[in-house]
Every structure is written in C-alpha cells, then in structure tokens.
Specification:
156 residues, mainly alpha, two-stranded antiparallel ribbon
C-alpha cells in the first residue's frame, strides 16, 4: 500500500513539474512575442525585415538567457569578501553579455539599416528594464501586467 501511495505521489510530482515547465515555456513565448512586436514597432521594420529579424532575435535572446543564467535569490552579503565575489560574478556575466551583443550586431547589420541598428540596443535595454520593473512590481505587489496574453509595454 505504501509503495502504491509513494508511486502515486511520485507521478503527481512529475506531472506537476511538467505543467510548470509548460507554463514557463508559454510565458517565455508570450514575452518573446511582445518583445518582437515592440522591436518591430520601435525600429519600424518592414515585413521583409521582420521575417529575417525574428530568427536572429530569437537566437540572440536564447544566448543572452544562457549567459545571464537564472538569477539567484539575493541575500545581503555578510562580509566584504562575499560582496566582492557577488560583484565579480555580476561583472563576469556582463562581460559575457557584451560578447553576445557584439556577435549579434554583425548578424543584425545584414537585416537592419544604420538607423535601426543604432537604435537596437537602446530599444532592447528599454524592454529589459520594463521587464525587470514588472518582475519587481509583481513580486512586491503581487500584480503583473499582461494584456490579452501579451506584456503591456509602457509608452515612451
């Protein structure tokens, strides 16, 4: 009986984790679609440019996510040595992010004109800032802003 109950609990746990992964993937896709729409609007991309831009931008986002990694829960450092280590880790991730950006600028230059390319990082940084603000407010206020399944972007 215990084995049956243990097996049942194990199956439920696996199903629950699978559902969470699917939910995370779904949210990630919605956020990406919103980012693409914001980029298309802000950079004023043509349909041709959008078609060429999306696969490059998707790859860029995946590489950036891999480089930046999942952020650990922040805890106040207890010593100067610990604070220095946290700062060094942060700076190392930032260096890797710069390398990814440099790599993709060459790829994006084949799709975007000079004005669009010069605005790309500003728009990307602004989008990332808005996402981090929403995460912060959702965490602290319990409210996220999704509108019709898409992230609501603040006009700027």
């Amino acid at each position: 009986m215990k084995r049956l109950l243990l097996s049942f609990v194990l199956v439920l746990s696996v199903l629950s984790l699978s559902a969470q992964d699917n939910r995370t993937d779904s949210i990630r896709e919605k956020v990406f679609e919103s980012k693409v729409n914001e980029m298309v609007t802000r950079l004023k991309l043509t349909d041709e440019q959008r078609t060429a831009f999306v696969p490059i931008y998707k790859s860029y986002n995946e590489d950036m996510r891999a480089v930046m990694g999942k952020r650990k829960k922040w805890s106040k450092p207890t010593s100067s040595k610990e604070a220095a280590e946290l700062i060094k880790n942060h700076l190392e991730r930032q260096k890797k992010a710069i390398d990814v950006r440099e790599k993709y600028i060459d790829k994006l230059s084949t799709v975007l004109d000079a004005g669009q390319l010069s605005r790309f990082l500003r728009v990307e940084n602004r989008i990332q800032f808005q996402i981090s603000q929403r995460k912060y407010h959702k965490f602290h206020n319990g409210k996220g802003r999704m509108k019709n399944g898409q992230m609501e972007m603040k006009k700027w």
